[in-house]
Amino acid sequence: MEQNFNINIFITAYLRQDFTRKCIQYLKERTKTPYTLFLLDNGGNSEFRKDVDYYVGFGQNMGIHAAWNTALALSTTDYFITTDNDLLVPDLEPDWLSQMIKFMDERPDYGAISLHPHIFIGAEGIDPKDPEDVKERNMCGAVFRIMRTAAVRQAGGWENKIDPQRNHEERTICSRLQGVGYKVGIASRIRAYHLFGENWGYPPEISPEQQGHRADLAEYVKQFDQPSAYDEKTWLPKT
User: Fold this and answer.
1) What confidence tens digit (pLDDT) does each residue in 77-115 have?
2) Burial level of 226, CB count in 10 A (0-12/13-18/19+)?
3) What fold is seen in the domain 2-229?
4) Least buried of 119, 171, 187, 196, by fewest C-beta within 10 Å?
């Protein structure tokens, strides 16, 4: 589908500048399929305006729902991609983006498919050797999540509110997509590395709960925040 090329990719960021830098760097180095990159800045990331095609600075932390509704309003392609700024794409051939577009082209009944994060939090894991390209799930997060623009508009987008909390945006949009008849899923074998860092990458004065993370998981996920333990091309564990 010709109109899928130069697909819109939206990164939402609030602080965590080191994460934003790495996210953009890996995206540019590892994506051969044409795309247009938008940075939706909820605060603190204006230094990266020169590194993207379009920069949208909100002037305050509007929250993830408002940011993704902005992405939906700005999307000009059949599919668009939403991602948090704490994720790194893999280095694959063909590249991750062309594969994700193919998955959507082959599955008109899907409204959204995300990459497979190297660690699931509070969700059943998916075997990266699974022969199925895409595993249907009740929910998929903003892990370079490709979304069918018309389907998301049909579902009404995200909640119409300004709130700096994360507010489980993935539950909202996935349940709404399912409510209008679409499936959502996760790409089994296309992994992304999920950065965690100290205090989830935020300054110490911002608690995990303030950004929608569970404080009791902080110590648990630290054991997986070791890029050297994973193959940097595939983000599979080194054997």
Assistant:
1) 999 999 999 999 999 999 999 999 999 999 999 999 999
2) exposed
3) Spore Coat Polysaccharide Biosynthesis Protein SpsA; Chain A (3.90.550)
4) 171
